[in-house]
Amino acid sequence: MDLNLITHWKPEPGRVVEWKVTDASARAAAEAPVDPALPTTMQERHLRRARLAANNGETQSPWIGIAFDFPGRLDTAAMTRTLERYVLRHDTLHSWFSFGNADADPTDTTNAVRRHVVPAGSIALTAHEGETLTTPEQVRDHVAARFANDTSALSWPAFVFGVVEHYDTGAPGCEDSFTLFHAVDHAHTDMQSMILTFAETRTIYQAELDGVEPDLPDPGSYVEYSRREREKAATLTLASPEVHGWIGHLTRNGGTFPSFPLDLGASDEPKPAIGSRFDLADADECERFGAVCKAHGSNFIGGVFAALAITEHELVGRDRYMALSPLTTRNDPQFYWSQGWFINLIPVGFALEDATTFTGLAQRAQDAYRSGKALGEVSVQQVIDTVLAQAGPEAMSQHATTLAPPPIVSYIDGRRLPQTESFTSTRATGIVGGKATQIASIWVNRMLEGTWMAVSHPDTDEAHRSVTAYAERLSAIMKTVAREGDYTVTSFAPAADSATAAGVE
Questions:
Q1: Which has the closest alpha carbon to 418: 179, 195, 174, 127?
Q2: Using one digit for the tens of pLDDT, what is the confidence trace for 106-120?
Q3: Beta strand pairing status for 450-458 and 429-432?
């Protein structure tokens, strides 16, 4: 599966058909009472940030989307049943959120975020035929507007569904097909959930065409997961091992979150975001790289973090690596097929110290990842909240809530997810929005075809040079390990271009 900013998505033109909730459903949602189930910590932070951005008239892109192709012509009735069944299966999609005081500061944690739940019996979708869009740019602009304007979790629905029909194009050898596009507020989803959406909607639609029941497991309840997460958070104290672990990592990193090591040309102010994609290693190279990792006490993911640490050491001289990496919290099998935000960030930190080779560092990196995973059920925000609560009301009142998300380094092994063999033939792509930024976040994705990296970063000349230098060095390390069985760490050696270190003496 590819991953694109909406500005880089290149859809085929065609006639648009979209699904919206019925008027009766919308009325039921508006009247939905407050439900006692609280949002998760990640959801609450996200919702406060979304409300603050809206209050300030700022652009935000809090949604995650996906697009993929179906063969043949659209059966509108079958797709309507598919999408209704899909929405009804996932209780998080029945929720919307409000604030206890709509006019008060959304960053004030005493201004409660409240959940409203639309009765399942009131949820119904109806198809609306739209116009025919004749260029990829028209399709992209239309879908981008829908995603930006109609996916807020502060109202309902927080999701968008539509297709673009590609018929009678006249192109030689062109067969009928249509592209499904879908987005939902990040409060209700993550990228693994989007991949599950791909598998689930394809399964349900084919079952509807065949007139049979879809063969899918029970999806579990994200609302129940939210309750469990809050119960766990309520038990945290300064004596909790997870709190100690997080504080240790942050202390060793100078009390701050990690940052991209090279200049992004945005230190003065946020700049428009853009995405860049880099191939790191092909499938055969990944197998050989993984074998080297295994032979030296590491898994593939530990090897990736070792290679990232070497990259930053060689480019800017960092002797300690630190990253915040998303980790799935679907630890209970009942949540495997659930839609929701099943993510916590974990710290992955380790020193290079006397390591002179990749193989001498791989197990250290793997151990650091395992250590971070042990903190996976507790978010850094919960740790901060716990520390402030223990410090007393005065500290709570003086603490300025920081809602800006930190940069991340994500690793996904897409080979283990359902229907991954169909990603290429369906042109499946994850889609995210872009906004002004000063940071760079990294997604390393291993698929059947190989491993590639996406980077979201400011659209500046400096950032383009920097992320390219970073990706090329990382790829060279991985390919060398695959080819020669090891890599010798060199001294601080800046790339030949003008990419410069950011915040490194």
A1: 195
A2: 999 899 999 999 999
A3: unpaired
What's this model's pTM, rounded to 2 decimal places? 0.89
The DSSP annotation for 192-213 comes to HHHHHHHHHHHHHHHHHHHTS-
Give burial (CB, 10 Å; 0-12/13-18/19+) of 98: middle
Lowest mean pLDDT among 21-25, 145-149, 164-168, 465-469: 164-168
Signed CA dihedral, 432, 321, 373, 469: sign only? positive
Cβ contact 80:125 at 8 Å: yes
CA distance linking residue 28 with residue 9, whole number of Å: 35
Looking up tokens 């000063």 gives 438
pLDDT in tens, 362-385: 999 999 999 999 998 888 878 877
The reported pLDDT for the residue numbered 170 is: 54
Tell me how far the alpha carbon of residue 21 is from its chain's centroid: 26
Contact 20, 126 (CB under 8 A): yes
Q: In sequence order, which residues have a C-beta less than 8 Å from that of residue 147 and are 6 or more positions away? A: 6, 61, 63, 65, 160, 183, 431, 433
Q: Which residue has the tokens 């040079």?
A: 465
Using DSSP's 3-state secondary structure scheme, residue 78 falls into helix
d(CA 295, CA 448): 22
Strands 409-413 and 441-447: parallel
Q: How far is CA 280 from CA 296, 307, 454, 484, 499, in A?
A: 21, 11, 10, 16, 20
> ∠ at Cα 54 (183, 191), nearest 5°?
25
